[in-house]
Write a structure and sequence with these properties.
The chain has eight helices and no strands. By secondary structure, the protein is an all-alpha fold. It is globular.
Length: about 240
């Protein structure tokens, strides 16, 4: 695999990037959630907008997506192997973390309750509906597989790492920060347990990003596959 390292730390540039990207992500989503015609797409739209800002900032900093982990893998076999490893570890982390959150809160309905009742039914049109299933499946790959991994593991993690460059365990702090933010992104429709579960997934993904020498491909593929499994179970009405 290609060994990738973050560019020379520039704390002020990293702080500026974080302010712009996170600001666009959170503010735009907050606004769109209050628009009845597009609230269900608030997450994807805000993520794509944040990704556009991140791409612009990369160019300004003379960085590339290949440099952050989307370069051509040297070994397809190893990429497949690490994808399987990432899939097993992230799904296990999510399941265990959600179960722990529910057990601590004591009421599963409260743990998984969305912040607004209408957000709870975000995927209600998927069961038995092939067109809705295919739409969300494509969205799961474009937004979940690529956009979220590029944004959170590729950009935000490395920016947090640069910001904390003079602090011990900068990489660990960076992994935690992007995980907390990633979990918060899912809170509005998955509830507190969803925040904990997706945050745990993001934490493991961040660790794996570093362990894979900053190669994003196994995380992109495992994330897309994980989302596909979840949507397929909903479509087949195995889970709700």
């Amino acid at each position: 695999m290609t060994s990738l390292q973050p560019t020379k730390p520039n704390r002020w540039a990293a702080l500026y990037d974080l302010f712009l990207i996170i600001g666009v992500l959170l503010v735009l989503k907050s606004v769109l959630l209050n628009v009845a015609t597009v609230w269900s797409y608030a997450g994807p739209i805000s993520l794509l907008a944040a990704l556009a800002v991140a791409t612009w900032r990369l160019r300004k900093n003379q960085e590339t997506w290949a440099g952050l982990g989307l370069g051509r893998p040297k070994s397809i076999r190893w990429t497949i192997l690490w994808t399987v490893v990432a899939l097993v570890l992230t799904m296990s982390a999510g399941i265990l973390a959600e179960a722990l959150a529910v057990s601590l809160i004591g009421a599963p309905s409260e743990a998984t309750q969305a912040i607004d009742a209408r957000f709870q039914g975000r995927f209600d049109n998927i069961p038995g509906n092939l067109s809705a299933y295919l739409f969300w499946l494509a969205t799961a790959w474009v937004i979940g597989g690529f956009t979220e991994e590029m944004l959170f593991r590729g950009v935000l993690l490395t920016r947090f790492e640069k910001l904390f460059a003079k602090i011990p365990f900068a990489a660990v702090l960076a992994v935690i920060c992007q995980a907390v933010l990633f979990g918060q992104l899912h809170y509005y429709y998955q509830g507190l347990a969803g925040w904990v579960a997706t945050g745990a997934i993001a934490f493991v993904s961040g660790i794996l990003y570093l362990a894979f020498n900053r190669n994003l491909w196994p995380l992109v593929l495992s994330h897309g596959l994980s989302n596909s499994i979840g949507l397929t179970l909903i479509y087949l009405e195995i889970v709700s």
